[in-house]
Amino acid sequence: xxxxxxxxxxxxxxxETLMQQLNIETKTQxxxxxxxxxxxxxxxxxxxxxxxxxxxISKLKSEIDHWQALASRVDDALELAxxxxxxxxxxxxxxxxxxxxxxxxxxLQALLSxxxxxEDAIFAIHAGAGGTEAQDxxxxxxxxxxxxxxxxxxxxxxxxxxxxxxxxxxxxxxxVSGDYAxxxxxxxxxxxxxxxxxxxxxxxxxxxxxxxxxxxxxxxxDIDIEVSEKDLRIDTYRSSGAGGQNxxxxxxxxxxxxxxxxxxxxxxxxxxxxxxxxRAMQILxxxxxxxxxxxxxxxxxxxKGENVDxxxxxxxxxxxxxxxxxxxxLRTRYEVGxxxxxxxxxxxxxxxxxxxxxxxxxxxxxxxxxxxE
Length: 373
Hints:
Layout: H1 2-21, H2 24-38, H3 47-82, H4 89-110, E1 120-127, H5 132-151, E2 155-163, E3 169-177, H6 181-185, E4 190-197, E5 206-218, E6 232-237, E7 253-258, E8 263-267, H7 273-304, E9 315-320, E10 326-329, E11 335-336, H8 339-343, H9 348-359
Parallel strand pairs: 4-9
Antiparallel strand pairs: 1-3, 1-5, 2-3, 4-5, 6-7, 7-8, 9-10, 10-11
């Protein structure tokens, strides 16, 4: 059993250090203080503040419970290993093997320390030029990310979806909610390229298609950014749907255009025009906020002599289905040959490679070096 004690002691020490770095004790005290406020008779006199407080309690408790449960699991295994009972050896060996990837993932998650990494995310996919080919590729990406969300227990709500003319989609905007949604999905921003034999080409020729992924944090509550009414153009239209009695007969969907930047945000999934307008405005503010944040980061990076631009012209990942099978990240150089698994949502390895590179301050500039089609 001695061979199991050492790795468990190492896990115990690692988790203890991470919990200190994450200020879990301080956060526990914060939860206790907020819960005391929530028990006050006047707590719900201001519903907006009360709801914001309850969201903070829920988020903090989720983080605290996660780390305390993991620490308890490791400590229980360590205590049993120290008892040196031979009949427990096989069971404990299985437990240690199971704990290794869990602790590794927790350690990586602990390094998601950006100001918005633990926020929900607003995630958009846009078909590139190329008509049906690109629109079909955009719908394949939508399916891939929905599968990823399902596999990792994230909740997804579709905010706006524009169908393609013949197949696929022109664009889709969705809300992804759950722990560290923005932190994990940040690796997906940029242009995704697909190379395949086209199912829409009667000559069965190889085609290259592009789709762009955008991401910004879904910051709860008011965003501290001013938007003048004179800078907005607001249009209403009838919500689209599959048909039937639940489709809105009135112009409840809302499209808001921010004239100075050209940003356009649409929402049609709420029940009323007012709700759709409020949600579209919130997302527009989040996009403007993210634009300003990235502008500041780019200015800082320029001073440092680094290039962090990941615009439309920079493909971040290639998905090659013909003449060979490969998905390759052009920033981290991480690649796999099982394209079917990736398109079915197995993206965590790509996300974690990106985060490790970012944490270690490695260059994340996309490069085509050594790649062939």
